[in-house]
Amino acid sequence: MKISDIINDFKTYRIDISTKTNANYKVDININKDSSWQGSINKMSWLNENERIGIYIQNNIHSEQLVINCTDKCELKIDILSIDKRNSENTRIPIWLDYYSLKINNEEKLNRLTEVNHDLVKSFYVNYIDRPIIIEFKTRFHQYKYEDLINILQKLYNVQENNIYNSIYNHIFIKKRLAICLFGHLRTFEKTYINFYKHIVNTNIADGYDVDIFIHTWNKMSADYGAWYYKKHNFNSKLNEIDVDISIINKVNEIYKPKEFLIETLPEQTHGQHISREKVLQLANNYSNKNNIVYDCIMFTRFDLLFSTNLNIDTYFNLYKMNKSKILNLEIDDTYFFTSSNIFKRMPVADPRYVNECDLLNFHLSHVLSNLKFVVLNNKNIPIDYQINKDFIILRDQDQT
After folding, report:
1. Beta carbons within 10 angstroms of residue 314's beta carbon
2. Which member of 11, 174, 205, 254 has the lowest number of beta carbons within 10 Å of its beta carbon?
């Protein structure tokens, strides 16, 4: 078997469309297609047509729009899965496929990476009335461990050669992507950026991540309104009077090389933290959509944190991996945040709805950025052993390094 044929199998999506169980619909289901379409459409011959009918659609491309028509009103079940592949003994060997975007009639149905195979299916239900149903989706190669991929190639395709293993693995492997969103006032960035790169950026690059940086900031180097120390301490009094001019902007671009950079004027008597966080997320979201990029992780942090300890994000993700070797019998999705903390230092409780200092640094699994908002009062915060005054400090204007 050709290597290209094997790779196509790993790329091939499957969509099953059928009438609802026991509905006894007398309809036909079909899709609109033009002469250039290379996929296949087959009837679900295993269904009892007196109760249900259905078709399954396959194609070896990563992005598709399907237009579904029926001859009468009905409720449809739409399954996303991967192809049915069996070895010489007719034993099904699961091939995984990752769906990271799915819309049905322009309604978002998936907002995170979803791993499926032929037996592990994700289902959706939709009513067909009098207009076509439009299904739009994007997939990517499943990111196998090298040893798992070899096991499939041996069992399914009887491949034994190392050079073929390596060729297929290198073709389907996608580098992990980390989006770092820097938000808020620039403050002491010139004193902190070296440690930021050493302990955050380069540490995760070494773990296999491509890192993209996004920046939203304000036109003043600092402002105190709304901060807990407002009118109590003059932490950044000198910086409050400094405008972010073109020379500072050039320096920021040179240091961070952001994919997107937005600077705005903060209205007087406005606390800009959450505004800036949402703005930088919007920058990352727009960049992701425009360039068809899927980020595996998004991190939010500030310019004025002086890091002193390496932060390897995979240390925390790996605890929750959905495989036999996982340490915790728990699962997470991208509604959970791993956060920095100051547990039991300023408060006598560790309440996951408000982790003290969780807003300084936090990160989470995310494969779709849209409609995502960070909420401090969130019972899905997971504090990690990365703490203020142990692994990093807030470097104030008057502090010395």
Report:
1. 15
2. 254
Reported as a pLDDT band with limits 50, 70 and 90, residue 240 is low
List, in order, residues 6 or more apart from 158 with CB less than 8 Å away. 88
What CA–CA distances, in Å, run from 146 to 84, 96, 153, 166, 334?
A: 22, 14, 11, 9, 25
The closest of 141, 155, 144, 13 to 93, measured between CA atoms, is: 155
Which two tokens mark 235? Answer: 């932490």
CA quadruple 216, 220, 222, 224: dihedral sign? negative
Instruction: State the Cα–Cα distance between residues 344 and 88, nearest whole angstrom.
Output: 60
The residue that leads in pLDDT, 331 or 394, is: 394
CA 206 to CA 363: how far, in whole Å?
A: 18
Whole-angstrom distance, CA of residue 202 vs CA of residue 15: 40
112 and 367 in contact (C-beta within 8 Å)?
Answer: yes
pLDDT of residue 292: 79
Q: What angle do CA 242, 243, 247 make, to 5 degrees?
A: 110
Q: Which amino acid is at 340?
A: S
Q: Would you say 289 and 263 are in contact if contact means Cβ atoms under 8 Å apart?
A: no
